[in-house]
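Module 6 notes. Inverse folding takes a fixed backbone as the condition and produces residue identities as the prediction. Think of it as a translation problem where the source language is geometry and the target language is the twenty amino acids. Below is one complete input and output pair. Work through it position by position during the lab.
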């Protein structure tokens, strides 16, 4: 009888210990925002090569529209901003795996990304431009991309749009490589942000390039966090920071600073 009581008592203790351990792990894991606050920093992924969104200035400092937005969000949460740079095709993969807390890199919203990530409210609006050499008059519409060669980072929305219209897309690592291929005649066109094209031409006024086609409707730009209940509070904080930036005029000021116009509102 004593053996049975002892065995039963041990079983009960084991169940209690397992339950307590599980509860301890759950409390420790918490949600992502809690982890960020406990750690004292938020890891923000971006390219660092896509002016004026995120790039290096003459002193090699990381600057740009998205850099300042990332810093504001970190300050709003009350932590340090840890910026990590990488090639576009690895940014979203790193976000999904938990290597980065958030990615801020002028990401265009589409249906696939709405389904795959939790997205912030839009904080910028941009048009997709088809850029060609100045002498190229063959491309007058998106349908004219059929059979043409373009270049983009392969996981970008721009590459997807080009492929949907029959283009053969060459994968590249960054914007400079894209324009080098275009200027050398190795591709016929590239799809990119109208704002990025304008910034490139400001820095390279002699470049023989032009916009052949531009979408009428502006694309929404948002900040993605990975799917899951543990990211809900972080997304709420991001949206809170963006709302505050809209309300106090910071978004408009940063838009004028980096783009020469207000891109925080749909045009």
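Target side of the pair, the amino acids:
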């Amino acid at each position: 009888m004593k053996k049975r009581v002892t065995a039963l008592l041990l079983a009960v203790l084991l169940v209690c210990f397992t339950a307590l351990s599980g509860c301890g792990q759950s409390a420790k894991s918490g949600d992502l925002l809690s982890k960020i606050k406990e750690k004292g920093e938020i890891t923000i992924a971006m390219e660092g090569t896509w002016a004026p969104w995120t790039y290096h200035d003459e002193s090699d400092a990381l600057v740009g529209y998205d850099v300042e937005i990332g810093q504001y969000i970190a300050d709003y949460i009350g932590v340090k901003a840890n910026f990590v740079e990488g090639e576009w095709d690895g940014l979203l993969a790193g976000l999904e795996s938990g290597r980065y807390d958030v990615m801020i890199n002028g990401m265009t919203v589409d249906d696939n990304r709405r389904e795959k990530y939790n997205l912030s409210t839009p904080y910028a609006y941009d048009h997709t431009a088809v850029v060609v050499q100045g002498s190229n008059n063959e491309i007058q519409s998106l349908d004219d991309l059929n059979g043409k060669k373009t270049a983009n980072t392969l996981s970008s929305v721009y590459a997807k749009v080009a492929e949907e219209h029959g283009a053969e897309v060459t994968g590249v690592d960054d914007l400079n490589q894209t324009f080098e291929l275009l200027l050398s005649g190795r591709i016929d066109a590239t799809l990119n942000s109208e704002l990025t094209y304008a910034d490139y031409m400001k820095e390279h006024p002699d470049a023989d390039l032009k916009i052949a086609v531009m979408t009428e409707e502006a694309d929404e730009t948002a900040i993605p966090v990975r799917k899951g209940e543990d990211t809900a509070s972080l997304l709420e904080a991001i949206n809170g920071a963006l709302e505050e930036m809209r309300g106090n005029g910071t978004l408009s000021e940063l838009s004028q600073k980096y783009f020469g116009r207000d891109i925080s509102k749909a045009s």
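Reference fact for the lab report: Residues 1-28 have pLDDT under 50 and may be disordered.
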